[in-house]
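Record copied across here:
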Amino acid sequence: MAGSLRGIEAAHPWAGAQDRAPGADPDPSAPAERIVAVVTSGAVDGDSRALRVAAAARAAGYRVTLVGQGPATVAADGVDVRRVVVQGVLGNHRVRRPRPGLRWPLAYRSAGAHDHRTVRLTAARALLVTRAAELHLVHRPLPLLALARCGHTLAWLRYGLRAGWTRVRAAQYQAAVRRRRSPDARLDNLMTDVTRLLLGRRAWRRLDPGLLDEEVAYGPVLDEVRPHLIHALGHRALGVAIRAALRAEGGGHRIEVVWDVPPRTPAPTRRATVAGEAHERSFAREADGVVTVGEGLARELRARHRLAATPAVVRNAPPLATAATPHPRGVRDRCRLAPDVPLLVHAGPVTPDRGPATVIEALPKLYDLHAAFLVPDPAHPDLAPLRRRAAELGVHARLHVLPYVPVAEIPAFLASADIGVLPVHKLPHHQSVLATRYFEYAHARLPVVVSDVRAMAAATLELGNGEVFRAGDTADFVRAVGAVLTNPRRYRKAYDRVDVLREWSWQTESAPLLDLYTRLLGP
């Protein structure tokens, strides 16, 4: 690695070539170097970047292993997939034992005690209801029946007292758990700052122990595979990769680490923000190579971590061949719409910062337009307010929620729509990069409607493949969609320019990544 822990060996350009003399030709009978792509954020099947990296490395002749959480069923042929399960024992400890303190003095002290008491209460009620039915059905002499009913009434009174006490304690426990899940009070922020002051770069161990859960799950797999290079996808995968490389080097086996950095999304709390920054500072300079998805982000990373070189830019575009294969059942067919019904599509999660509410609010003003949301999980809670708002506006029949299709099929699946939309808000992580969905819309040859974030607005205005609107402005969004629907052929013609889609293809984008592999591992 390029940092302090392994800087001496990493300075040599052939340090990653195992058992090979400098300048010697590789032995043709020796097995190819093994590359491991590590995914820690979500399922492998939904991570287009990981699947494309694995496919490119395999096509270049490397042995490739993809390590991540399931499901993992759509990797390229010849790619070994190792599925891991992150138990979350350390990360969930704060929630399972919330330390209610003086604010919630009656709260249960652990999840086990809370579950035990509430389940016992439910069981006691079931027994009392059953006993009442028995007293009604079974014939008894009148004195015995009266005595039994008296005892049953006392049991109900005792149950009522116990239920009230249990519910009070359970409510306080749940309030304490909610606070632990969202530690954003002033006292929480103060303790976060104290932890950062005392522990410095190691503060992540205290503030986000879930990172250690991932170490427990991924570390043994990486140690067993013994790769020559680890491609760490995302911020959380970096520490796992660096620690595996250090353990291997301690045993005489050199592992290069490539860190693949996406834009950092805003964390929900200060605690999570500080933990993420500390974790990144601990390991960023130890990576042997860094790649990212935009020029602005590359410059920012070099300045923030004082990297020796500017990270290579490898944008997450689909392979060019994907667009040439028609999908047997596209998005229009899945929505059961005729070819002449206008249809826009929004692909990706529907978190508020991605602007799905703008689409819903615009539907009443776009009378015949249908909107399809292609999402990872159609049952996700973020969809509930969108469905409610669509029902309030009377447009719920024109809202379609569809699950993801395999990554390789996305452009062909989207091609039957009329417009691809990216109504994201003007936040830092949206400003500096072209989103993966933007490239997928382009390969589907869809006109686009994008908000006025810097990178996507500039690309759209330059190419002429769509319209730009003011982020969060429903009226301007309606104008932009109307302009595209009026003359869609004009915007689709932008993709006929020479080499536009070839430039925005994985074949082109992956070239700097494969060059980096060659520099680290040797020819």
Summary: The radius of gyration is 28 Å. The mean pLDDT is 88. The longest strand covers residues 34-43. The chain is about 50% helix and 15% strand.
